[in-house]
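Box 3.1 A note on notation
Throughout this textbook, protein chains are presented in two layers. The first layer is the amino acid sequence; the second is a token string describing backbone geometry. Keep the layers aligned when reading.
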Amino acid sequence: MNKSLRLCLVCAAALLAGGCASVPTSDPDDPLEKINRPMFKFNERLDKWTTRPLAKVWVWVAPKPVRAWAANFFGNLADPWIGVNNLLQGKPADALNDWMRFVFNSTLGLGGLLDIASEAGMPKHDEDFGQTLAVWGVPDGIFVVLPVLGPRTLRDAAAAPVDLVADSYVARELIYHDNIRERNAFIGGRAVSARSQYLGIERTLNEGTLDKYRFARDFYRQQRRAKIYDGNPLHEYEDFDAPDDGDDQAEQAAAPQPEAQQPEPQQTGEEP
């Protein structure tokens, strides 16, 4: 499955239903918020009138096993590029796992319809070129919302074209072979299959989220950080033992001051 598109659709589940509440926030990593919010609404309406209805029809007409086969099929085609990214991130064992998954599922799994690799102990990974750039030390950059693709950091926005080209290469060589009609059917089917997996969370998001834009932004950042660190993001803890200038001054002010010593009377040598 196209990882960039699937990531967009994950966040698009927070977009739907009639407009988000405009709750302005001051976020130093989102200086383009005045531009991002209208684009967010555009994506929301686009999903409402295109991908979401098609996903509902797909869930209605296709039995659950058929939907699972379709998801496995699209996910299998993503494994070669996932393996390349794992290799570029310095994880050759994971890369070999991804390529072996592709071989197993493409042959014994009936062209990827069955995920027998997971049952054989080869876990599914989720890597993309944006994560690879992060491992290489490229900073996140500002938060942006792209048309159709949805929330991104500046780094991930720059990596998205690479993911799109690499993902489509495998599908083009194995599936549609430059046939435009088959290509469009493949892209549409993949998008609908991915979108259908997130229909169940919409009600919770609509009822529990006052500002969907802010929720999507924070959710995107958190899940990207978790993916970059393979589910074990680094935590920054505050050092409560470290001295703080303000606290030191307050403690000094509150500390009892020593009593001033009275000068002792000087003896003149004369007895009273």
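Strands lie at 143-146, 150-153. The longest strand covers residues 143-146.
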